[in-house]
Amino acid sequence: MVGILALQGDFAAHRQALAERGVSTREVRKPTDLQGLSGLVLPGGESTTMLKLMAEFGLETPLKQAIAGGLPVLATCAGVILLAREVQNPPQPSLGLLDVAVVRNAYGRQLASTVAELTVTAPEELPSPTLEGVFIRAPKLVQVGEGVRVLAKRGEDPVLVRQGAILAATFHPELLPKNPVVDLFLELARRRG
Ligand SMILES: NC(=O)CC[C@H](N)C(=O)O
């Protein structure tokens, strides 16, 4: 069972992407929803709103514990901002579980949203040399720690990274059919069992 943080944002698109792969999902809104999961999706949306709701629903500490305990995670866009060690533009609190610094809204506003071709830099993790990525008011990773592996880049910018069982994309793999990033996350979740 894969959980999807469903406080705000595009959790329904993730649900759909996983349903297409025959994976059952549970919407996560309260601490008990985290029980018995093999993976967790932190969707895109508005990270500031998600932070507020996380605090309101008492989810912050249990989420932090579950992820620190090795629960495989697919974080997309705002989800990456929630996990980052440092958030800029403007600074805001975060769970600090992923050793990256991010600048919010770094590729321009909603109208500058785009589909870009990405170069895969870890061929043993992703099958094809390129990927498509949908960027919507996306954050930029401006610093990536030593224990964080860059799996794909947009130009020179890292846009898909992995740290242990955390897979983090500044774009939206759930919005394109058959995106291999979702499959890689499911592989991590399967390994966890
Ligand atoms: N598509 C997204 O998730 C955008 C993220 C949003 N701009 C934020 O800062 O929280």
TrEMBL record:
Keyword Transferase assigned: no
Stored Pfam families: SNO
Catalytic activity from the UniProt record: L-glutamine + H2O = L-glutamate + NH4(+); aldehydo-D-ribose 5-phosphate + D-glyceraldehyde 3-phosphate + L-glutamine = pyridoxal 5'-phosphate + L-glutamate + phosphate + 3 H2O + H(+)
Active-site residue numbers: 77, 172, 174
Pathway(s): Cofactor biosynthesis; pyridoxal 5'-phosphate biosynthesis
PANTHER family linked to this entry: PYRIDOXAL 5'-PHOSPHATE SYNTHASE SUBUNIT SNO, PYRIDOXAL 5'-PHOSPHATE SYNTHASE SUBUNIT SNO1-RELATED
UniProt record similarity statement: Belongs to the glutaminase PdxT/SNO family.
Subunit description: In the presence of PdxS, forms a dodecamer of heterodimers. Only shows activity in the heterodimer.
The name this protein goes by in its record: Pyridoxal 5'-phosphate synthase subunit PdxT
Organism: Thermoanaerobaculum aquaticum
